[in-house]
Amino acid sequence: MCCEASRTDSFVMYDDTGALPNARKLTLSRRYYTFVGRQGEYTRRRGLDRETNKALLRQHIERNARDGSPLGELNQVLPGMKASQVQNLLREMKRDGIAHPAGKTKAARWYPGPAPLERHK
């Protein structure tokens, strides 16, 4: 090996993937990719941050506000994420009043804004 461990340690970073509580994914640091002239690859491997992913989902939901967006369509917006990860983002968006589902099965569709209040008779 051409480098000492202490020199290469500065190029390694650990990143929680969130998929499993104790799982970690090894990612080389931005500094390494800058050093080898491949900054774009770092961004691709790192993925988009949580807020950017939610913004992409929100944009799609708002553009399809009239007919709503089924979950399968929303999974297409973020193809690099597992369906469960997309569902977690949608749950956060629902909690924050950004989007709401209409229906409870696979036929459910997501619409922008908070859920309308239900009227009791």
Which short descriptors sum up this protein?
single chain, 121 residues, alpha+beta, Arc Repressor Mutant, subunit A, 2 domains, 3-stranded antiparallel β-sheet, two-stranded antiparallel ribbon, 5 strands, disordered N terminus
Describe this structure in words.
This protein has helices at residues 5-9, 30-35, 39-46, 50-63, 71-77, 83-95, and strands at 12-16, 24-28, 69-70, 99-102, 109-112. Helices cover 44% and strands 17% of the residues. It contains six helices and five strands. It has two domains: 5-45, no CATH class; 50-112, Winged helix-like DNA-binding domain superfamily/Winged helix DNA-binding domain (Arc Repressor Mutant, subunit A, Orthogonal Bundle). The strands form two sheets. The chain has a three-stranded antiparallel beta sheet. It has a two-stranded antiparallel sheet with strand order 1-2.
Topology:
Blueprint: H1 5-9, E1 12-16, E2 24-28, H2 30-35, H3 39-46, H4 50-63, E3 69-70, H5 71-77, H6 83-95, E4 99-102, E5 109-112
Antiparallel strand pairs: 1-2, 3-5, 4-5
CATH architecture of the largest domain: Orthogonal Bundle
Instruction: Give the class-level CATH name of the largest domain.
Output: Mainly Alpha
What is the CATH fold-level name of the largest domain?
A: Arc Repressor Mutant, subunit A
Largest sheet: 3 strands, antiparallel
Q: Report mean pLDDT, rounded to a whole number.
A: 80
Order of helices and strands: HEEHHHEHHEE
Shape: elongated
> Radius of gyration in whole Å, from Cα?
19 Å
The N- to C-terminal Cα distance equals 75 Å
Oligomer status: single chain
| Poorly predicted segments | 1-6
Number of strands: 5
Counting H and I runs of at least 4 residues, what is the number of helices?
A: 6
- Estimate percent helicity: 40-55%
Domain module tally: 2
Strand order of the largest sheet: 3-5-4
**Class inferred from helices and paired strands:** alpha+beta
Relative strand content: 15-25%
Could you name the CATH homologous superfamily of the largest domain? Winged helix-like DNA-binding domain superfamily/Winged helix DNA-binding domain
